[in-house]
Amino acid sequence: GCVALWDIRYPLLAKLWRHSAGAPVDRLATTVTTLPQDIGINGGSSSTPSPLIFMGCGLNESSVFDVTNGNCRQCFRALDPALGYTDQQALPQSCLTLPHLQTVELPNNPNRSIASKNEGYATYTTHGLGRG
């Protein structure tokens, strides 16, 4: 699945990311907030609120990504019941690592296509992202 970040002042696609699992994005929500782990001792905030994407992607996974850099801030997973009593070292690597957003390079010419190895191609135009 992909996440597109648009500059709505101009019809301009600013950033395009692909989820590392390659799975479709099932749910998406955005907010500007401070995560609980960013709140300092005595209730003081150690950082300013940042724009976040809450994304449901893949099997039983919900992740929180920082829009400013694409880093995963938090990930919640429910293991497949077949893996429920498996020793942690025996789990697949995909269960042990945080997901990440892979940057999809945008062409300099907005009428050029954005290649996709699995689903044909998409054309980035000033009117939106069309399927080809």
List keywords for this structure.
132 residues, four-stranded antiparallel β-sheet, three-stranded antiparallel β-sheet, globular, disordered C terminus
Could you explain how this protein is built, in words?
The protein is 3% helix and 44% strand. By secondary structure, it is mostly beta strands. A hairpin with a 3-residue loop joins strand 4 and strand 5 (61-66).
State the low-pLDDT regions, or none: 116-132
Write the element-wise H/E pattern from the N-terminal end onward: EEEEEEHEEEE
Count of discrete alpha- or pi-helical segments spanning 4 or more residues: 1
State the strand order across the main sheet.
Answer: 3-4-5-6
The N- and C-terminal alpha carbons lie at a distance of 16 Å
Portion of residues within helices: under 10%
Strand residue percentage? 35-45%
The total beta strand count reads 10
What is this structure, in a nutshell?
The protein is mainly β and 132 residues long. The protein is built from 1 helix and 10 strands, in the order E-E-E-E-E-E-H-E-E-E-E. The protein has one helix at residues 93-96, and strands at 2-7, 12-19, 25-33, 50-57, 61-66, 72-77, 101-103, 113-115, 121-125, 128-131.
